[in-house]
From TrEMBL:
<feature type="domain" description="Thioesterase">
    <location>
        <begin position="51"/>
        <end position="125"/>
    </location>
</feature>
<dbReference type="InterPro" id="IPR006683">
    <property type="entry name" value="Thioestr_dom"/>
</dbReference>
<dbReference type="Pfam" id="PF03061">
    <property type="entry name" value="4HBT"/>
</dbReference>
<dbReference type="InterPro" id="IPR029069">
    <property type="entry name" value="HotDog_dom_sf"/>
</dbReference>
<keyword id="KW-0378">Hydrolase</keyword>
<protein>
    <submittedName>
        <fullName>Hotdog fold thioesterase</fullName>
    </submittedName>
</protein>
<dbReference type="InterPro" id="IPR003736">
    <property type="entry name" value="PAAI_dom"/>
</dbReference>
<comment type="similarity">
    <text>Belongs to the thioesterase PaaI family.</text>
</comment>
């Protein structure tokens, strides 16, 4: 079942994030499904630690970007989604290629959302698992 309550596409996500951290890091939106968003980040000079592995904070940027977009586009116009908590478990280092993330909702309530974001390398091996909790804010009366 399609969960999006606002128009969303790879093109609109890409345009909205062009002059942001997402654009600076080279994150690319790949797919919007009925209940998920997929994007990837390159493992290159912009995103690695001095030790040559993908910086854990970049994994969190990708995860939070995906979960925040998911929450934003799955709530009615006029409501806002803001981050409350992000958790990330780094499972495997990435040294080359791309890390791809997929965000899916675990819980979409009236006042909170929880999104699961799974990141993997080009071989399909898990590199990071993340959970993002979002507060859903209603317009002030």
């Amino acid at each position: 079942m399609r969960i999006w309550q606002k128009p969303v596409s790879v093109e609109s996500l890409t345009e909205k994030h062009t002059k942001t951290t997402v654009g600076h890091l080279g994150i690319e939106f790949l797919e919007v499904g009925d209940d998920f968003i997929r994007a990837r980040v390159p493992v290159d000079h912009r995103t690695v630690q001095p030790y040559g592995i993908l910086h854990g904070g970049v994994s969190v940027v990708l995860a939070e970007t995906l979960g925040s977009c998911g929450a934003h586009y799955s709530i009615p116009e006029g409501q806002r989604a803001v981050g409350l908590d992000v958790n990330a478990n780094h499972l495997r280092a990435a040294t080359t290629g791309w890390v791809t993330g997929v965000a899916r909702p675990v819980h979409r309530g009236r006042t909170t959302h929880v999104w699961q974001i799974d990141l993997s390398n080009d071989a399909g091996e898990a590199t990071c698992v993340s959970r993002l909790t979002m507060a859903i804010l209603f317009p002030r009366q």
